[in-house]
Records
---
Amino acid sequence: MQTIKRERPSATVGFWLKGIFALLLGASMTLGFAPFYLWPLVPILLAIFMALIFKERGKRAFWLGTLFGFGFFAVGLWWVRISIIKFGGSPLTFDILVTLLLAL
């Protein structure tokens, strides 16, 4: 008979906090590029992210990496939304949805 391994509720809450932190780290990566040019932040933020996923396994590391990348691309591609509004004339909710799907 197999036993089902269940996670403690505190482990799940900790993972969600790590996920939010990974999302914020990814969003902060855009500060290293134009127009901010805070390029020394990029290796520091990457090192913090690597420390965040260091002891994680499989699926958890994958989801943390996905959230990090989503935060990075969602903030970095936000200008696409403005282009869609200006040249496409589509509704704001559609523009935001398309931009977030592109980032994902």
---
Amino acid sequence: MLTGARRMGAAIADRLTAQGASVVVTYRGSSVEADAVVAAARARGVDGLALQGDVADAASVAQMVEAVDARFGRLDVLVNMASVYEAVPFDSMTEADWHRSLSVDLHGTFRMCHAAVPLMRRGGGGRIINFSDWV
């Protein structure tokens, strides 16, 4: 499961599906990139699922993990990549900008891990990979 299907998320999904892994990609606003990742996975003969959700919202995170459980019955790898991806000069950053970034980049990562770990444990374990945003 990859939070974020754009840029690096699509590249990671490509490598995973090349190895025969099924992939789940999440997106918040636009389904175009997520649908392309799923289409590429299916073209390789592996399953793919695109899920709309927002890692900044705990209920949305729970729904995404429940959808993975319903479809696959397990979760082996979680790659947290969701990020705000807005370069705001520090001296121009508002407190609202700061909290928005933390809500996605930091708290969203926590929410995803917290929701995914029980499913991973039930399946015998798993791996979590966390990316951070350079901006």
